[in-house]
Specification:
It is built from 11 helices and 14 strands. The chain is of the alpha/beta class. It has a domain of 64 residues: Alpha-Beta Plaits (2-Layer Sandwich). The protein is globular.
């Protein structure tokens, strides 16, 4: 029996203008329960405007957006309790302690106060819970912002540059939290410029350029649409490398990196047939490594394709 996932966000034909300036044009997208969607684009592409429309902070000029079953800016307190938001710029009252700040937000959200200590532990800030926020580093404030977004176990998380200012260990902790939230069933919308970190952590990608959606799909699907290349590195005996080159050299770009090392490039969609053909030769291989196109490469390809757009 096929399981049907609930739709957390459904946007249809969203446009937003500020005077004569068009920030978004005919944007449609969806986000399902337990799905992580990456929203990427250059500065000025319209990401922040789209996030504000989804959160009900702005009204669209045209179109509509439905979030957790409700439309418009008149969404009530119960609706707000189901959403966690981490803005790009995090501001806290510096004279408050971390505990006081999260307790304040937990009360606003109607969440259980015992969550506060648990959230500090979850973002590895337990040792600073009673320190004043004015003494926190940028990375500590970022983790406090993440804890604030998680208050009340929200059904929908909106995270704008969630790893800004974090060291590698703290970034890994944030991504572990996101994995845990997905398993719990939360839907996640993440906007980030750190494309190298999120390409294997998201289910789908929406690319915005000059206020328009220029791509929407899985990383694999977008790779195939752009006919990007996978790299196949092979280590084998020199005569085996020569046989591979003679067999595939007429069809694929091949580079002899060193004696006993060879690199084949093929379109992402042809990777499996090429690998099967290599194995069918029956040649002993010492090693084989495959590097697929990254989200950064996909993003660059779509930006090149739409280079007539405005980049901020």
């Amino acid at each position: 029996m096929k399981m049907t996932l609930n739709t957390t966000v459904k946007a249809a034909g969203l446009s937003k203008s500020f005077g004569k300036t068009s920030a978004l044009q005919d944007v449609s997208l969806s986000l399902h329960e337990g799905e992580c969607l990456a929203l990427v684009g250059h500065n000025g592409a319209g990401k922040s405007t789209l996030i504000k429309l989804i959160l009900g902070l702005l009204d669209p000029t045209e179109g509509e957006v439905c979030v957790l079953g409700e439309k418009g800016r008149g969404r009530g307190q119960k609706w707000k309790q189901k959403i966690g938001f981490l803005p790009e710029q995090i501001l806290f009252q510096k004279n408050m302690t971390g505990r006081e700040a999260l307790t304040f937000y937990a009360r606003l959200k109607g969440a259980a106060l015992q969550e506060v200590v648990e959230l500090f532990q979850r973002v590895n800030l337990a040792g600073a819970i009673d320190q004043r926020i004015g003494t926190y580093s940028k990375g500590m404030r970022q983790r406090l912002g993440m804890a604030q977004a998680l208050i009340g176990k929200p059904d929908f998380l909106v995270l704008d540059e969630p790893t800004s200012g974090l060291d590698p260990v703290a970034r890994q902790n944030i991504y572990q939290i996101l994995d845990e939230e997905k398993k719990r069933g939360a839907s996640i919308l993440i906007s980030s410029h750190v494309l190298t970190e999120i390409d294997d952590r998201v289910d789908r990608i929406v690319i915005l350029n000059a206020g328009k959606v220029v791509a929407d799909g899985t990383l694999n699907g977008l790779c195939q649409k752009q006919t990007l290349l996978s790299h196949i590195f092979i280590e084998a005996a020199p005569d085996a490398c020569e046989r591979i080159q003679n067999t595939f050299g007429h069809d694929l770009p091949i580079t002899r990196l060193a004696e006993g090392e060879i690199l084949l490039r093929c379109e992402f969609g042809r990777k499996i047939p090429v690998l099967n053909s290599i194995y069918a030769l029956g040649i002993p291989l010492s090693d084989i490594r495959i590097t697929d196109p990254s989200l950064e490469e996909v993003f660059g390809a779509y930006m090149h394709e739409t280079s007539g757009g405005q980049h901020a």
